[in-house]
Amino acid sequence: MIHGSIDLIDDLCTSCMICARECPTWCITLTSHQEQSVPAPGARPRTHNVLDTFTIDWALCMYCGVCIEQCPTDALVWGGAHVPSADRLVDLLHDRGQLGRDSGA
What we know:
By secondary structure, the chain is α+β, with helices and mostly antiparallel strands. The chain has a single domain (6-97), classed as Alpha-Beta Plaits (2-Layer Sandwich), CATH 3.30.70.3270. Helix content is 13%, strand content 31%. The chain is elongated, with a radius of gyration of 15 Å. Keywords: 4Fe-4S, Cell membrane, Iron, Iron-sulfur, Membrane, Metal-binding, NAD, Quinone, Repeat, Translocase, Ubiquinone.
């Protein structure tokens, strides 16, 4: 497997924060909010996290794959292509739109 960029499969992410906590360089940041849903008539409302932002700072990333290995829902995967160099550090911050991948579901 080629260790290039890391892709985020948006709809698999539960905003558990394990990737951000386990990252040795703290290059991942994410924010989320909680929403309530009622799964079936008569059932109690359930609270679940909804992902708002997800960012990887490629200037800090070591491409070690710890985030991918630790993700319990397989929302992070190797992307294949390396992240292109940039003239400005801010251009190495990639958000959900740049990291996104369709789950194929």
